[in-house]
Amino acid sequence: MADESGLSPFVFACQGGLVLDQSTFVMQPGMALELENFEPDVQGGYRRISGYSKWNSNIVPQDASASEKVLMSAHFNNKVIAARGGKIHEAGKTGSWTQIDTGRSNAGKYTHFRYNLGGTDFIIWADGANRATKYDGTTVTDLTGTGAPTDPAFVTAYKNAIFLAGHSANPEEVIFSAPYTDSDFTAANGAGSVKVDSRITGLFPFREALYIFCEERIFKLVGNTIADFVLQPVTREIGCLNGFTIQEFAGDLVFLGPDGLRTVAGTERIGDVELGTISRQVQERFTGLSNVDEFDSVVIPDKTQYRLFFSDANITRGNTKGLIAVRKGDTYEYSDLRGIAPSSTDFVVVQGESIILHGGFDGYVYRQEQGVAFDGNNVTGKYRSPDLTMGDAGLRKSFQRVILNYAPEAAVNADLFVRYDYESPNAPRPAAYPFDTTTAVAIYGSSVFGTATYGGQSNPLVRQPIEGSGFAVALRVNDRGTSAPYSLKGFQLEFEAAARR
User: Fold this and answer.
1) Which residue, 339, 368, 397, sits at the end of a domain?
2) Which of 494, 488, 390, 500 is CA-nearest to residue 41?
3) In this structure, are residues 91 and 97 in contact, taking their beta carbons and an 8 Å threshold?
4) 333 and 394 housed in the same domain
């Protein structure tokens, strides 16, 4: 038996997420220099994300052109409401799409809000070019009452009233209905309006306030009715670039500001200084982003996860990027997204089940968190550790093996790479070591695929002999795109001390 008495172990857990604002010399070992299509797992580690599949196998019917994107994908009464061109349709998971509204001209991207009035469930939507419209599952009704705006872009509800904003006649005005009605906008009955001094980019009710996001300002409206509504400034120096990035997430409101992702609480508490930004560790992902109009976002509630999509009609689905943010304790962990290109999004929790939707530039509606592929396209994941010196950058180490701890959900098909000395061209570059289900089975001495992979042992250990030496080492995992999701939990590197530089 080989003498292993001189081997030193170096163990680290995968935690901290993607970090791009630190030198690898000071990064914690569990952080990642590359983390694409792996999500920081709420149960620890980095999980290869799930795929998505079509909500309904039929394309949403086009209006005038096959190039029309899905402008709205909203879940309501166990169906999806989808807008394309000047028409709106609904469908369940099977069967054809049924047209419920038509005649809308020059419609933009829709906002929508679900509410209950007098015991009846409604959904209301606005597109920035036509009347706001409500739907109860049977009847579509435009909001045409006196005082209602003709072309609002944003709609929500707050304190038992409907709030509309973003209309062309006055893009700095918010108009609200009388209490306990969605169609009466007469001042005598309690309807009214408030005006701000910057173009409105989004509305969002949160706790006991309605937040009004503008290009260069943020305000909040507090109170119960027109009698006691008070408009208060949150900040006059920072605004929201895109209202579709505003989400309630992890007990706060997250939105895209000019300096990255921010939270309302952080902005209120700290003012407009950089400390209000929560995305500093991935700030370079926002550098140079100028066309943010088509960006979108969604929340996955059971994962405490926020997804931001850098959607662009001129970029193919496979090249569309984005970010995942996961709240862990009082910090955020990030990773990159690639291959999801929403033109609209929605999420809802129905009887404890999270339903995550997005409409595509191709005319289909998709449900996220489904299966192992992006509607038949491979989900390729990438992980790279920092360059690890084991506390001594001047000592050459001769590496003997890597022990990988992971949690599979089904078959895994990936490669493990070991790279030395900051991937210098003069450093050893061993060939890929297969990291797949067959390897995991062999460790437990069983030829029964199901038992060893997902039977008794939930977190297998892959004990992989490796070769090479260097002053620093980095580990890569490249998913081949045919794996089911799995979570990388941690690594142990075993090495012998060699010469000192």
Assistant:
1) 368
2) 488
3) yes
4) no
Tokens coding 183? 């169609």
Rounded CA gap, 390 and 473, in Å? 9
Strand, helix or coil at 205? strand
Tens-place pLDDT, residues 198-245: 999 999 999 999 999 999 999 999 999 999 999 999 999 899 999 999
Residue 70 in tokens: 């899905």
Give the DSSP per-residue string, 360-424.
ETTS-EEEES-SSSBTTB----EEE---B-TT-TTEEEEEEEEEEEEEESS--EEEEEEEEGGG-
Q: What is the pLDDT of residues 279-303, one digit of tens each?
A: 999 999 999 888 899 999 999 999 9
Per-residue pLDDT reduced to its tens digit, 331-387: 999 999 999 999 999 999 999 999 999 999 999 999 999 999 999 999 999 999 999
Domain that holds residue 441: 8-34+41-48+382-500
pTM above 0.85, yes or no: yes
What length does the chain have?
Answer: 501
Residue type, 204: F
Separation between Cα atoms, residue 50 and residue 479, nearest integer Å: 13
